[in-house]
Amino acid sequence: MNLFDGFGRSISYLRLSVTDRCDFRCVYCMSKDMTFLPRHRILSIEEMTLVAQAFNELGVSKIRITGGEPLIRSNISLLFKNLRELPLKEITLTTNGSQLIKHVRNLVDVGVKRINVSLDSLQADKFKTLTRTGKLKTVLKGIDAALEAGLKIKINSVILKHRNMDEVRDLVGFAIGRQMDISFIEEMPLGVINEHQREKEFVSSADLREHIAEVYPLTPSTKNTGGPSRYWQVENTSNYIGFISPHSDNFCSGCNRVRVTTEGLLLLCLGNEHNLDLRQIIRHNPNDIEGLKQHIVAAMQNKPEKHHFDLNGNKPQIVRFMNMTGG
Ligand code: SAM
Ligand code: SF4
To answer: Of 171, 96, 161, which is closest to residue 132 (Cα–Cα)?
Structure first.
């Protein structure tokens, strides 16, 4: 079975957010003081498993667990164990790396092969400023433990012009040195933040690429992970650098994904508000997976053609933060 939206795009990829909470407060993702959801509004592990199963039965073959910080969700190991029972092609994870050391063994045991780790700085003080609470050393140890256990890692970095642009080449060097790919993500206007003006910190992927290529010559690549990243290969290495450019290169025509937030909202597009409340459906009819699937199939017709991000703020913006959206 295949799941299609109203524009004929095949939806094969679900990003499932397991918590809105996080042990970091990255400056582009959250404000300093955040209010998190009360427990009763959050899907239980059993409800998340049911959602995953419904999507899987509809043809979704890849699930990425995200958040907030997924590895701080209580009983996250049970969810991974449940997902392992489904005939998925891939289960993967996006994490800030702070709890990786503790979870690496378990991730490998449940069949996770690749993970994304977010890392915006290699300088301890700057890392602390950007994450507000994070400890670089712990994250680096987590990365090394994961590599040692055989996990493939892609680093994700958000670059802000006046804060960590000076570290772009160091981050690339760090990734190459550990045989990891790295993707640079343009900052998206999700949620109201007060520490910087997003449009003043914006660096386009094209500028980043030029900056990197002065030191690491790049060749365009056809590598395609079915996502929004456009990849370039670092010459004379087997490493790839991805650029995710929601502003400078609209990636919507090939969109193959939807998101489910930790409170069970099916989000049909990162940059639009179109959604369906799966929690209400599940709690109304807890064991009716066929009914749930029918709702999901019908909702696909409302998936918008594209997002309308605008850094200058004169178009409708998304008020939810990335931790609510499930990055
Ligand atoms: N806590 C985990 C982490 O940081 O990897 C998973 C969730 S986080 C929301 C997922 C990704 O979203 C991270 O790579 C983060 O850098 C990115 N992100 C968060 N807010 C963003 C924003 N406003 N624009 C672009 N990327 C953002
Ligand atoms: Fe937490 Fe990830 Fe958001 Fe940073 S980007 S605050 S680590 S959810």
So the answer is: 96
